[in-house]
Structures are given as C-alpha cells and as structure tokens.
Design a protein that fits this description.
Order of helices and strands: EEEHEEHEHHHEHEHEEHHH
Distance between the termini: 43 Å
Oligomer: single chain
Number of helices: 10
Helix content: 40-55%
Strand order of the largest sheet: 6-7-8-3-9-10
Structural class: alpha/beta
Length: 257
C-alpha cells in the first residue's frame, strides 16, 4: 500500500498540492482523476520521486520515501514500473531491446536470462511476434503495449501510469485498460493511473481519487461515482458522453418504474 499524508507542493508562491491525504491499495487499479491543471501529474511525480514535496509524507508499505537516502531511493525505484504518457521508447533499439533495457541496467541476469524474461513480458502483452521491429514501425497502441512490457519486466511492486490511453482510439484504450487491470490482479501490484478517460473510470476504477485545484475532493469506487454528492466531480464526470448516456438511461428507468 502507498499512503500519502498531508502532502504539499509549491513552486515559488504557487501552491499546487494542498494537504493531500490518500491511500492506494495493493492489488487494485487506483485512478487519479481531475481536470487539466488540477495537480494530478504533480502528485504522481511526487510519488515516484521526480519532484520532492514541500512537506508531507509518501509512505511505501510504511517506509517514508521522502526521508530516504539517495541510495535507498535508488533501491526503492527498482520496485517501481513507470508508463509515460508518450510511450518513451528508444527509437534506435528494437522492441526486444527496449523491454530488456531495465534488465540491462538493474538485474544481474545473464544475457540469455534477460532475453527470456523480456520475451515473457512481450508475450504477456501479445507482442512477441513484433520483438525484432523498431518503435517507428509500430502503431501508437502497440508502442504503449511495449511500454507496459518494459514497465513490468523487473516485476515491480508498484506500477505508475501517466495517461496511458492518451492519443489512442476507444478500442485500443480498452485493450490497454484490460492489460493494466490484468497485470494488477495477477501480480498483486499497487497500480496508480492518472487519467481523464471516463471509460477507464467505469471499466477499471476500483479506487478513484478526485483532485481539484490541488486538493483531494473525493474518493470512492466506480460504483460510487454515479451517486457522488460532489458538484466538482459531477461537472467532470457528466461532461463525458458515456456518463451522459448512463445518466439518461437511469432517469428513464426510474421514470418507467
């Protein structure tokens, strides 16, 4: 479990995160949602150590990441997998070499073991046949699947995904969501996903944290979203065509009953 306590982050005189408290559960897809500029990306960067909080705690199973030494943080990051908004693959490396890269950097496996492990992860995302190709030869959805394979190759305990469905069509987004949800369950990973995709919220949102203007405004499950008593959350959620249709259907059923 990851727990954040009274997390604040300021840039100069601008307070971006304001006393945020939340927990992210093991074995669940934890979603952070919010409007652009709400602070959710800054929150994730504080979680993984790309930014240092102004104050507060980031606890990994009780270990305070903020207070760790440099060496302890390096060791901690080996327990993390990260999927960036752009797949962030190395254009000059093949698909197999991209997935092997974390193993080359951080594992003590021999070459044959590293290849085998990378192939296992590519098979998990159904891309084993593409291992000799280069990123430029792949579609956007395939690149994201390679990024997922690379993120899980070190068997991370914590998986962070920043807008994994950005730029993808709805069908491909569903494939990515199902992959992330399946990996989370199979390996009991603590998965945290930044998203504005309401289809993801309803599809895999086991725990949802809603951020607005740097504050945690609401938390719950996908089943709680429809009846949430929070006007800011409602403004975000019901701007989605999907939720408009669901809401209208519920209203018709209520009227007919």
């Amino acid at each position: 479990m990851i727990e954040i306590k009274n997390l604040c982050k300021s840039f100069g005189d601008k307070n971006v995160l304001k006393d945020v408290c939340a927990t992210f559960d093991n074995g669940k897809t934890n979603l952070i949602i919010g409007q652009s500029g709400s602070g959710k990306t800054v929150l994730m960067k504080n979680l993984v150590g790309l930014l240092d909080p102004t104050s507060g705690q980031v606890l990994y199973d009780g270990r305070d990441f903020v207070q760790m030494s440099k060496q302890e943080k390096i060791a901690m990051r080996r327990e993390m997998g990260m999927i960036f908004q752009s797949a962030a693959l190395f254009d000059s490396l093949s698909v197999l070499e991209n997935v092997m890269f974390p193993l080359d950097m951080f594992s003590d496996m021999n070459y044959r073991e590293r290849v085998k492990r990378a192939e296992e992860c590519l098979d998990r995302v159904n891309l084993l046949d593409a291992m000799k190709k280069y990123p430029g030869e792949l579609s956007g959805g395939m690149q994201k699947r390679v990024a997922i394979a690379r993120a899980i190759v070190l068997n991370p305990r914590y998986l962070f995904c920043d807008e994994p469905n950005s730029g993808l069509d709805p069908k491909t987004s569903l494939v990515i969501d199902e992959l992330l949800h399946g990996i989370t369950k199979d390996f009991n990973t603590t998965t945290i996903i930044n998203t504005h995709d309401m289809n993801s919220v309803m599809g895999i949102g086991e725990k949802i944290i809603f951020i607005s203007d740097g504050r945690k405004e609401w938390e719950g499950t996908k089943d709680d979203v429809m009846t949430a008593n929070n006007s800011k959350l409602n403004d975000l959620v019901f701007a989605s065509d999907l939720f408009k249709k669901v809401k209208k259907a519920e209203e018709r059923n209520s009227h007919n009953a």
